[in-house]
Amino acid sequence: MQGDVFASGRARARKNGTEMDGILFHNVRNFWETPEGGFAMLRASAQVDAVFDDFGKLMNASGSGVELRFLMTGDEVEVELGCESADGVAACTLYYGDFVADWPETDKLVRGRRSSVRIRRSPHAAKLREIHAREGGRFDPDVVRLGLPGDRLRYFGVKGGVAVPREDQLPQKTYLAYGSSITHGSIPLHVLHAYVERVAAGLGADSRNLGFSGRARMEKEVADFLAGEPFDYLTLEMGINDLGMDPDEYERRVRYMLERTAGTHPGAKVLAIDVYRFALDDVQQARAAEFRRRLESVVKGLGLPNIRYCSGLYFLRRDGLLAEGLVHPSPEGQIEIGAKILKLLGE
């Protein structure tokens, strides 16, 4: 059941994640023990998960932005992970600090319901430390980072000596991103192309991906959860999935979201983003224009100095940066969104 690992003392909350078994589960706030064994990793709290419908719960258990971070006390570690199905295959990406592992170690495959991911200490560890000392970077190169894909993987355990990284080995600032599937990670082809990670790297900050494909409805519980999380930069994508909402309800929800998040973090930079560019029918375009007017009005009315209103049309300059479905950005579109968000947050 949810929360068992906390009640048992096996896990404890950490900044931007949860510590368990000598591993920092970055971007994980809760675990759910599955009937098949192992733990699903939930990016938001149990309180948030409780208000989601079944699809929302699936998105909360997605691996977008989730990393298993640890220090190695020996030469080899095996992390046991599993897919939801017996024929599932998922590719995790291995980093040593800021350095992505070289071929053929870059992608670590998880096959079937339970398999071992073997990670060896980098043979170039001393050189990586030398480069880091000379040039700096977000992460200490001794921090092993196993980045999960968007799949819903299960964690079973770890074999080998591991220890949780110290806070001074991790980025000191946090960029938190909330939004729809565009924030969640559609369609970058690779995690390195997703705008959330690109923005965080440009800011020298850690990333927190709280995108929820098909959702991002600004529920009160979500706003309260975000307000309780640490962040120095925050982007709130409040757009495409909300077009079916009554405009008055949309206005009420975005106001509460901004009051709770920006209002409780006065030192943070917050971008209030409405509907990103899309190329569907005129009725939806007109509705998007109404929602843009509503959000801009709310931001002006609140008068909070740390919020900046951003029209979603600013981030993609042309329809050719959309994927075939004419809603999600292409990989090139994700890159452009990231560059423009980085510019705004860096100003």
- The amount of helix comes to 25-40%
Q: Give the helices and strands as they follow along the chain.
A: HEEEEEHHEEEEEEHEEEEHHEHEHEHEH
Mean pLDDT: 94
Q: Roughly what fraction of the amino acids lie in strands?
A: 25-35%
* Oligomer type: single chain
The global form is: globular
Number of strands: 19
Main pleated-sheet profile = 9 strands, antiparallel
- The secondary-structure class comes to alpha+beta
Total helical segments: 10
Uncertain residue ranges: none
Beginning-to-end CA distance, first to last residue: 45 Å
Any idea what the radius of gyration is? 20 Å
Explain this structure to me?
It contains ten helices and 19 strands. It is α+β, with helices and mostly antiparallel strands and 347 residues long. A hairpin with a 5-residue loop joins strand 4 (30-33) and strand 5 (39-42). Helix 6 runs parallel beside helix 10 (331-346), helix 7 runs parallel beside helix 8 (247-261) and helix 8 packs parallel to helix 9 (282-302). The longest helix is centred in the C-terminal third of the chain and has 21 residues, at 282-302.
